[in-house]
Amino acid sequence: MTITEPSPSAGSATVGTAARPVPSDVDTDRHEPVRGAQADGGPPGAPTKPEPGRWSWRRVSTNGWITVAIGVIATFIYTWSLNAVGYANDYYAAAVKSMSVSWKAFFFGSIDSGNFITVDKPPGALWVQALSARVFGFSSWSMLLPEAIMGVASVLILHRLVRKWAGDLAAHIAALAFAVTPVAVVMFRYNNPDAFLTFLCLAAALALWSALESGRTRMLVLSAALMGLAFDTKMLQAFLVLPAFILVYLVAGRPRLRTRLLQLTAALGTMIVTAGWWVAIV
Q: Which residues partner with 110 through β-bridges?
């Protein structure tokens, strides 16, 4: 018996596959994706999701953009024409100048580089200004720039504190009101110690809030250390908020009472060390 092999012809399939006619007006070499299909397998028309672990502008919420805008406003207000302020308080400006040329004057906060006269308080705030003067050279701008930075940081810290307590809307209102308050604008464009004092107290309050949420001793100790540095800025004025801090953690802390007392004892020791080390040396 003779077996005849089928001859290939247009529109027929090879042996072993089902025959399917191919329209003559379709280019078989082109493969176009189906319209509306998603590369990640999502439904047609759905927005493309950003890759995990990769930052995207789309992930910033409306409240996040408002917070950024408040920070930009504060930066503009506190830094605009900063040189026009001049040397502000000449008493502290003289100390910053001498501290920028002599490390001994830097440590003691001396008005003159010969360390004959010192300022009337611990030089915590002046240290920051003098470091800026050493980096950028002594000028009105380099001396006042740290004050403006402390102001912007204080606005953002206050925003975070209020947001944790009362939500986004209250945080926006509080931060914006604080940023444009005339006395705050003057304070963060001047070389008095109040700008650094305000920043440290707000940072201590934020650390205290974290300690209330987590019950961790290290956050309470951090809050106490910041309070000690605030003392090195403007002495006992820093401790005006201290009774409220202690009472809040004693009443609202997460651990049991005995643990809270031990934590407060450790925090007190930390604050004494950070506040008194410079005084003990001098």
A: 118
